[in-house]
Design goal:
The complex is a heterodimer.
Chain A lengths: L3 E5 L3 H12 L3 E6 L24 H17 L4 E4 L1 E5 L5 E6 L2 E6 L2 E4 L3 E3 L12 E3 H11 L6 E6 L3 H11 L3 E7 L10 H6 L1 H16 L8 E8 L3 E10 L2 E2 L5 E4 L2 E5 L2 E3 L2 H5 L4 E4 L4 E4 L12 E3 L9 H18 L11 H21 L14 E3 L4 E2 H9 L5 H8 L12 H12 L18 H5 L1 E3 L1
Parallel strand pairs in A: 1-2, 1-7, 2-3, 6-23, 7-20, 9-16, 10-11, 10-16
Antiparallel strand pairs in A: 4-5, 5-6, 8-17, 12-13, 13-14, 13-15, 18-19, 21-22
Helix pairs in contact in A: 1-2, 1-8, 3-4, 4-6, 8-9, 10-12
Chain B lengths: L1 H4 L8 E5 L2 E5 L5 H7 L6 E2 L5 E2 L12 E4 L2 E5 L10 E3 L1 E2 L3
Parallel strand pairs in B: 1-7, 3-8
Antiparallel strand pairs in B: 1-2, 3-4, 5-6, 5-7
The chains are: A alpha/beta, B mainly beta.
Chain lengths: ~450, ~90
């Protein structure tokens, strides 16, 4: 009897898991919200649109290679583009919305390859149009052939801001300033780890060379503390930070019409949590993460997580882990008797690159002062327009858990389902009370907005 | 290398309407991308009266929702622009 696997997410982990599942004779359903496969890192433009690929040539080759392998199995799987998995209530069943209809899809194994989303911190003016995540700026370049602005300030932690600044330059854009929270040399404390990942380091050095040649003003250790503008961004104030916030006198105002920023990532882990999987919290690798074993198995039978959704480790690890977890899912649902010998390769890739993440984490290390920059009226929850003073009022009133904060303030009740604000609220609450909230906000069954009409129009899968 | 990768915002395949004004777009662009290329970053006005624009660009944050062909709360970053679309800036909670 043919065994079935549902995979959620068509990024590197999901595509690799699908390829592996097909190789082991499984019936694979791949559910993805985007119109084309690739996820965020290998995002593809519409075929009719000329959007120059500004990624490093090495990344372009990896993208072309994985997409070619995926395209070779695409006709043999049930690939659902433009579909959203919005709930998982029971083991082995996933609730999926597509267009104005919903369905419950059942399978012997479910693999979540849902990746991560970006996070930032609130500061005065951060809701001004033109202030966007670095990945949003990158998606404008990659998928739409559009520059994020005429003059762009790029800021943030980790490697992504450097990559995005270089890609804006390669696309002919003007980077008005680059403010890396930690200088790239922060990674040099982990020379052994860098040696393990020389190819990635060389990519990083090519991006740095692009930034250097363009003569971009660089402000290492600075971060945005104020965004100025009403209908559009006019300037960003950068300042050096200490643990209390901006260091007085260090402020620099930079005229710009876009700010591309990234201050870390949060794992898209709502569905495993909703299904009852045991979770753990690790701020630097994605916040609330499902606890998984070496083969991606969660505490829920038949539910696996692969790639960054199980902890931020990058696209190369995600692809390797997609293969590992795809094979493990096939083995666990008895499509095959044993794990294939070919898994030695992705297991070795993952092992080797995990050490590189020590160097990446050194560039992502949090700075306490980031959480002191919002003033009383700065918006924390963008969907419900809730300001910092309302969060502080709730915390001062004794509300400690994210669930209590949500009920007391409406933070997290809006359109995004708390995905934008809750990583920030966790850090802001820790900054205000000295103790981080103990549990994640209870994920509610609609992980994506679904219309009542679509819920009523439930079709048999 | 820089030249053949340079992005040009010139050239259009069709137009749509945003707040009654024509906006050029190319086939395959999102509504948000076409508006940003045209210099419009304020996509919405929230219930406190503040302008809001694209934040995540990947459909997660819902900050860019617009009324598209009469249907409210459509994400501009996830909606492919089409010829003749009528798009309005939402104000407050609709």
């Amino acid at each position: 009897m043919t065994r079935s696997i549902i995979i959620v997410g068509a990024g590197p982990a999901g595509m690799a898991a699908a390829i592996e599942g097909v190789a082991h004779g499984c019936a694979v359903t791949l559910i993805d919200e985007a119109p084309r496969p690739g996820g965020q890192i290998f995002r593809q433009p519409h075929p009719a649109l000329r959007a120059p690929d500004v990624a490093d040539p090495a990344e372009q080759r990896r993208k072309a290679d994985l997409l070619a392998r995926f395209n070779s199995i695409r006709q043999r799987i049930d690939y659902q583009a433009g579909a959203s998995a919005y709930a998982m209530l029971d083991a082995g069943a996933l609730h999926v919305a597509k267009g104005e209809a919903t369905s419950i899809v059942k399978a012997d194994a479910i693999v979540m390859a849902t990746g991560v989303r970006e996070v930032a911190y609130p500061f005065p003016g951060w809701t001004t149009p033109g202030v966007m995540y670095a990945g949003a700026a990158q998606s404008l370049l990659k998928a739409h052939g559009v520059l994020p602005g005429k003059r762009v300030v790029v800021a943030g932690a980790g490697p992504l801001p450097l990559v995005v600044a270089a890609q804006i330059i390669r696309a002919g854009g003007d980077v008005a300033a680059l403010a890396p929270l930690h200088p790239p040399t922060a990674a040099l404390r982990h020379l052994g780890a860098l040696w393990q990942a020389q190819a990635i380091v060389r990519e990083g050095m090519r991006y740095m060379a692009t930034i250097h040649r363009a003569g971009v003003p660089r402000w290492p250790g600075f971060a945005p503390v104020h965004a100025i503008g009403q209908e559009r961004l006019e300037a960003v104030v950068l300042a050096r930070l200490d643990s209390n916030g901006a260091i007085p006198g260090s402020e620099r105002e930079v005229a710009c019409d876009a700010l591309a920023m990234n201050f870390g990532f949060a794992a898209n882990s709502e569905l495993p949590a909703m299904a009852g999987a045991t979770m753990r919290h690790e701020a630097l690798t994605g916040g609330w993460l499902p606890v998984v074993d070496a083969l991606g198995r969660t505490s829920v039978p038949g539910l696996f997580v692969a790639g960054d959704a199980a902890g931020l480790r990058g696209a190369l690890v995600a692809e390797a882990e997609g293969r590992i977890v795809g094979a493990a899912a096939a083995r666990d649902c008895a499509a095959i008797a044993d794990l294939p010998a070919s898994l030695a390769e992705p297991l070795a890739v993952r092992r080797k690159l995990l050490r590189f993440q020590d160097a990446v984490r050194a560039m992502l290390a949090p700075v306490a002062g980031l959480w002191k920059l919002a003033d009383a009226k700065t918006t924390v929850c963008r969907c419900e327009s809730v300001a910092l003073d309302q969060l502080h009022f709730a915390l001062a009133g004794g509300h400690r858990s994210l669930n209590e904060i949500k009920r007391a303030t409406r933070i997290g009740m809006g359109w995004c389902g708390g995905r934008t604000c809750m990583p920030m609220v966790t850090a802001l609450a820790a900054s205000f009370t000295g103790t981080p909230p103990l549990r994640m906000m209870t994920p509610r069954p609609l992980a994506r907005p679904v219309t009542l009409a679509a819920l009523a129009r439930q079709t048999a899968a | 290398m820089q030249d053949d990768q340079a992005i040009s915002h010139d050239g259009q395949d069709f137009v749509f309407l945003f707040e009654g004004e024509t906006v050029p777009a190319r086939r395959g662009q999102s509504v948000a991308a076409a508006l940003i290329a045209a210099g419009t970053s304020a996509l919405r006005i929230d219930e406190a009266g503040h302008f809001k624009g694209l934040l995540c660009g990947i459909g997660m944050c819902f900050e860019c929702r617009c009324r598209i062909n009469g249907v409210p709360d459509q994400r501009a970053c996830m909606t492919e622009a089409e010829p003749g679309m009528r798009i309005e800036r939402q104000q407050g909670l609709v």
